[in-house]
TrEMBL record:
This is Glucose 1-dehydrogenase. It comes from the Bacteria. It comes from Lactiplantibacillus pentosus (Lactobacillus pentosus). Gene3D superfamilies: NAD(P)-binding Rossmann-like Domain (3.40.50.720). GO terms for molecular function: glucose 1-dehydrogenase [NAD(P)+] activity. The keyword Oxidoreductase applies. Transmembrane segments: none annotated. Keywords: Oxidoreductase. PANTHER family: OXIDOREDUCTASE, SHORT-CHAIN DEHYDROGENASE/REDUCTASE FAMILY (AFU_ORTHOLOGUE AFUA_5G02870) (PTHR43639), SHORT-CHAIN DEHYDROGENASE_REDUCTASE FAMILY PROTEIN (PTHR43639:SF1). Belongs to the short-chain dehydrogenases/reductases (SDR) family.
Length: 261
């Protein structure tokens, strides 16, 4: 628990399920006010609202497509109208499309780019403008991936977007450091969420993924949420521009695990 988070207001994009849902719940436990964005799953968003309220926080669910300017504006408006302020903005929404790159359609490339890359820009821009206008020491967290570092054949649009999130995060962290606005990324490894449900339902694929993790297990969304709470809190007050990998060691070149090479 981080005492300074109590009563602060956060926007979480893509909060109806998976990692976003877990962050909402954790922020509820911290006594925060949370705007839970969803795109197409109102039931999931309502369950996240209930989780936040059960843990002692306050929450509202807001439908918005975060790849649009109107969408992110409606999330900021909801924070101000319902809770009077904005302190933390989490660009969590994301998606991936698998395709050999020589067959990847322009539509598919544009869709992944719009959500995973442009959505992060639009969310960050509106939060930065708000923090600047109100002279606030705001906090932005961008959900990247181990694939900001590890190439991922047949997911080129996703890896390209996450690589972009990394340098975008570092660049705006530097640009707004003097304003005391901190910007960091989180790089999850393999986490048990709906994005992986189909893959992990197949035992062979599940086992293959576990083999890529030195800690020998898939991560839980709550373990990512714990990192988000730390980055949002004053306990990380001198941290900006990093990617906090929460990956059980996946980025440590596990092919060398037993001294090979
Ligand atoms: P998820 O599919 O459970 O959740 C993603 C959320 O984003 C969903 O609620 C979805 O509706 C929302 N979303 C998608 N497009 C949107 C749009 N246009 N507007 C608003 N919301 C939209 O996946 P997750 O695993 O919880 O992923 C959350 C983030 O973590 C993503 O950015 C993902 O790339 C990243 N990540 C996940 C893993 C993992 O193993 N689960 C690993 C690395 C990175």
């Amino acid at each position: 628990m981080y005492e300074d988070l109590k009563g602060k207001t956060a926007v979480i994009t893509g909060g109806s399920k998976g990692i976003g849902h877990a962050i909402a719940e954790r922020f509820g436990q911290e006594g925060m006010n949370v705007v839970i964005n969803y795109n197409s799953d109102p039931a999931g968003a309502e369950s996240a609202v209930a989780s936040v309220e059960n843990k002692g926080g306050h929450a509202v669910a807001v439908q918005a497509d975060i790849s649009t300017e109107l969408g992110v504006q409606s999330l900021l408006d909801a924070a101000v109208e319902n809770f009077g302020d904005l302190d933390v903005w989490i660009n969590n929404a994301g998606m991936e499309i698998k395709s050999p790159t020589h067959e990847l359609s322009l539509d598919a490339w544009n869709k992944v780019t719009a959500i995973d890359q442009t959505g992060v820009f639009l969310g960050s821009r509106i939060a930065l403008a708000y923090f600047k206008k109100h002279g606030k020491a705001g906090n932005i967290i961008n959900m990247s991936s181990v694939h900001e570092r590890i190439p991922w054949p047949t997911f080129a649009s996703y890896a390209a977007a996450k690589g972009s999130v990394k340098l975008f995060t570092q660049t705006i962290a530097m640009e707004y450091a003097k304003d005391n606005i901190r910007v960091n990324a989180i790089g999850p490894g393999a986490i048990n969420t709906p994005i992986n449900a189909q893959k992990f339902a197949d035992k062979a694929q599940y086992d293959q993924t576990v083999k890529m993790v030195p800690m020998d297990r898939i991560g839980d969304p709550e373990e990512v949420a714990a990192g988000a709470a730390w980055l949002a809190s004053n306990e990380s007050s001198y941290v900006t521009g990093i990617t906090l990998f929460i990956d059980g060691g996946m980025t440590l070149y596990p092919a060398f695990k037993d001294g090979q090479g």
